[in-house]
Amino acid sequence: GDSVTQMEGPVTLSEEAFLTINCTYTATGYPSLFWYVQYPGEGLQLLLKATKADDKGSNKGFEATYRKETTSFHLEKGSVQVSDSAVYFCALKPAGNKLTFGGGTRVLVKP
Amino acid sequence: DTEVTQTPKHLVMGMTNKKSLKCEQHMGHRAMYWYKQKAKKPPELMFVYSYEKLSINESVPSRFSPECPNSSLLNLHLHALQPEDSALYLCASSQDGGQGRLSNTIYFGEGSWLTVV
How far away is chain B from the Cα of A81, in angstroms, using its nearest Cα? Predict the structure, then answer.
């Protein structure tokens, strides 16, 4: 079945540091890939998405590229802020099928 | 912009109470979802409605009863819950991909924090 594996946290960084969260997946067919972010005490927000191989999703300084050859969708940000402290979920969804989440990665950015 | 609104934001209920969670979206989406999220875990799918009909029930106990009065509204009726049902309940919506196929992008609300005492 479909599955998503992402690095376990917490990831602790200083402000302005470079952030990478690894995400790899297993799926049949060609799923769409997503990153969702959950700030403390809030629901999930769609951060970015990519629907086919080599697509790059980007939003709020975050980027992720759909790499079919390595079945990966790593999230990156060049310079994090304290306000980026949150839990980040990688997810995949084949057409017509259910959304499958990774376990989530907690990121803590210190001033 | 996308918006899925949920009420109430916080709910405390006893094990013998009957309460409801409500969800509304005005994006014209025809698929709506309920998810349950426990602390430090990803959301787990509970129910999916497509065109106001229940299309997926992930073997959820009958003490949770979903209802979709129209294409914009989704309710979750709660009765005789247990303390272990305490969690964040997330509503979500997506466009329907046609022929009953769910569109790929799902948008979530802020959630309702439920505590069962």
Answer: 22
